[in-house]
C-alpha cells in the first residue's frame, strides 16, 4: 500500500519529526511504500540530513516549500502559533495532483502499533478523519458549538492526527472561507488552526477513537475513569497506535517525567544514532 505522510515543521523540530518517523518504521509493515511530505516556509537547513534519514528508512522525501506565498498574511500568528500551523489546511494547493489521501501528524507523536487500518479508512464525502481528546459533556460541546458557530459538529477534534481526503479538500476547502472565518471569529480563537478546522469543517470530520489513534499522554486518569480501568498501561501498549505528547511539557526536555518518558527517549536515542 502506498502511504503518504505529512508534517509541517521548521528547523527546530527536525529531530522530533525524525523520532516520529523512526517509530513508524519500527512499528509498521515494511511492505508499504512511504512518501514523506514536509510543509516548510523555506527549504529546511537539514534537507540533506532528512533526505538521508528517509532513505535509511526506505521512505521517499518530498519537501513542500511555501516560500513567500501571500496566502497566509491574514492568519493570526504568534510565537506559539507560527504560520506553519496553517499550511495543512491548504495542503491540497501544494501537493501533487496524484495525491488523493495523506496522513498529517504532529511532530510530538510516537507510533507504537501499526496504523494501516486508519489509512485504509474510506472517507467517502468526509474531508477528514480525526479524534476528540475526551468524551465531551453536553455543556462543553455546546460551548464550542456556540464559540465556533458550528452547531452540526459532533465534537471538538484535535488536529494533531489528521487523515486528509485531499481529493475532497481540493473541492471544498477555500482560503477565502478560512480568512473570512478568522475575521469573523478573531476574538474567539483559542487554538487558531484547530478552531478553524472545527468551526468550518467539524461536520465533515469522520470521528476516530482517541484512545487508539490520538492518545493524549497527559490524561491517563481520564482514560482510566472512562474505561473503568480497562485502558491501563498494558492495554495502551497493545492497542494504542499514536501517543500524542500534547501540551507545553515535552518528552525531549530534560525534566520531563511523564509515564511514557522512557519510551519516547528510547525512540529518540535510536533515531539520533542511526
Automatic annotation (TrEMBL):
InterPro entries (UniProt xref): Glyco_trans_8, Glycosyltrans_8_dom-fam, Nucleotide-diphossugar_trans
Pfam families membership: Glyco_transf_8
Alphabetic keyword roster: Glycosyltransferase, Metal-binding, Transferase
Gene3D superfamilies: Spore Coat Polysaccharide Biosynthesis Protein SpsA, Chain A
Magnesium recorded as keyword: no
Xref: PANTHER family: GLYCOSYLTRANSFERASE 8 DOMAIN-CONTAINING PROTEIN, LIPOPOLYSACCHARIDE 1,3-GALACTOSYLTRANSFERASE
Name of the molecule in the record: Glycosyltransferase family 8 protein
Lineage: Bacteria, Bacillati, Bacillota, Bacilli, Lactobacillales
Amino acid at each position: 500500500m502506498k502511504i503518504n505522510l505529512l508534517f509541517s515543521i521548521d528547523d527546530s523540530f527536525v529531530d522530533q519529526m525524525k523520532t516520529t518517523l523512526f517509530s513508524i518504521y519500527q512499528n509498521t509493515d515494511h511492505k508499504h511504500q512511504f512518501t514523506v511530505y514536509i510543509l516548510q516556509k523555506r527549504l529546511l537547513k537539514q534537507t540533506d540530513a532528512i533526505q538521508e534519514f528517509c532513505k535509511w528508512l526506505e521512505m521517499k522525501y518530498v519537501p513542500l516549500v511555501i516560500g513567500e506565498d501571500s496566502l497566509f498574511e491574514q492568519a493570526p500568528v504568534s510565537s506559539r502559533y507560527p504560520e506553519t500551523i496553517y499550511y495543512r489546511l491548504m495542503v491540497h494547493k501544494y501537493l501533487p495532483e496524484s495525491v488523493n489521501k495523506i496522513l498529517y501528524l504532529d511532530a510530538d507523536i510516537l507510533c507504537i502499533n501499526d496504523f494501516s487500518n486508519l489509512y485504509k479508512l474510506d472517507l467517502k464525502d468526509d474531508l477528514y478523519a480525526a479524534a476528540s481528546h475526551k468524551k465531551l459533556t453536553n455543556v462543553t460541546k455546546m460551548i464550542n458549538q456556540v464559540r465556533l458557530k458550528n452547531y452540526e459538529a459532533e465534537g471538538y477534534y484535535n488536529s494533531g492526527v489528521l487523515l486528509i481526503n485531499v481529493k475532497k479538500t481540493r473541492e471544498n476547502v477555500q482560503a477565502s472561507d478560512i480568512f473570512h472565518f478568522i475575521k469573523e471569529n478573531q476574538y474567539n480563537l483559542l487554538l487558531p488552526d484547530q478552531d478553524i478546522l472545527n468551526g468550518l469543517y467539524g461536520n465533515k470530520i469522520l470521528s476516530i477513537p482517541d484512545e487508539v489513534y490520538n492518545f493524549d499522554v497527559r490524561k491517563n486518569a481520564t482514560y482510566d475513569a472512562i474505561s473503568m480501568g480497562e485502558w491501563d498501561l498494558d492495554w495502551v501498549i497493545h492497542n494504542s497506535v499514536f501517543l500524542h505528547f500534547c501540551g507545553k511539557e515535552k518528552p525531549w526536555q530534560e525534566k520531563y517525567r511523564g509515564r511514557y518518558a522512557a519510551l519516547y527517549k528510547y525512540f529518540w536515542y535510536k533515531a539520533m544514532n542511526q
